[in-house]
Amino acid sequence: MNSTGSQSADVVCLVDDDASIRRSITRMLEFNGVKVCAFGEPEVFLAYLSANVVRLAILDIRMEPMTGFELRAHLCTRSPQTRVIFITAQEDETAELMAKQAGAYAFFMKPFDANEFLPTVHRALEHSQADGSAYENQED
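-> structure tokens emitted (140 positions)
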């Protein structure tokens, strides 16, 4: 993949330290016409971010050595226009509240329903040029 800033604007970045989750989400998104650049390490994503425009980042909350929330804080400094969707496998009521407070566009528990996740990804990309980071509550 060519990684120039102008070409990467339509690429969704996925950061999750679980390789099987990365593969699964990448396949789902790409099958539905979304280009994905997946990262297993937050630091590698940050290096990519320094040379590329990222409209949407999907971040796992529980990663080492940097959590998704810590990664979001770096995003706020380096790329405040980037929308963020947080994902997590750990059921934690506090996590959704923290995601909202961190300015997340949305929050999903893994495994999630593609029929809810995909439209949210598309809306986040559509809204990525707008000011602010409206939080979309994903409750059943």
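The domain at 5-127 is CATH 3.40.50.2300 (Rossmann fold).
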